[in-house]
Amino acid sequence: MAVLQEFRRRSRQVVVPVLGACVIGYFAYHTVQGDRGLLSFMRLSSEVQRAETMLEEVRAERVTLERKVSLLRRESLDLDMLEERSRAVLNRVRDDEVVVFTPVTDG
Predict the structure, then answer these.
(1) CA pair distance 27, 107, nearest whole angstrom
(2) What Cα–Cα distance (Å) separates residue 63 from each residue in 17, 42, 59, 68, 69?
(3) Which tens digit of pLDDT belongs to each residue from 53-64?
(4) What's the 3-state SS for 58-69?
(5) What is the DSSP string of 11-68?
(6) Model pTM?
(7) Rounded Cα–Cα distance for residues 18 and 22 (Å)
(8) Which of 56, 58, 78, 57 is nearest to 69 (CA)?
(9) 3-class secondary-structure state, position 7
(10) Do residues 72 and 83 lie in contact, with contact meaning Cβ atoms separated by under 8 Å?
C-alpha cells in the first residue's frame, strides 16, 4: 500500500510539469509552423517584396505609356510620334525606306 501511495504522490508532482511542457511545446510549434507563424511570416514577406517590385515595374511602364500618349494629344501633337504610330498600326512604309527587323526581347 505504501508503494501505491508513493506512486500517486510522485505522479502528482510529475503531471503538472509534463502538462506544462506539452502546452509550451504546442505554442512553440505553432509559433514557428502555424498559419501565422514565423515561417509563414517570412514567406508572406518575400511575396510582398516581389509584389512591390512588380508594382514598381508596372508604374515605370505606365509612366512611359503616359508620356507617349501625351505626345499624341491634340494640344501637344508631335508629328514624328503620330507618323510612327500610324506606320505601326497601318503596317506601311514609303518606297524609299528600308525596313530592318530586330528580335524583340523581354525586359
Answers:
(1) 46
(2) 63, 32, 6, 9, 10
(3) 999 999 999 999
(4) HHHHHHHHHHHH
(5) HHHHHHHHHHHHHHHHHHHHHHHSTTSHHHHHHHHHHHHHHHHHHHHHHHHHHHHHHH
(6) 0.52
(7) 6
(8) 78
(9) helix
(10) no
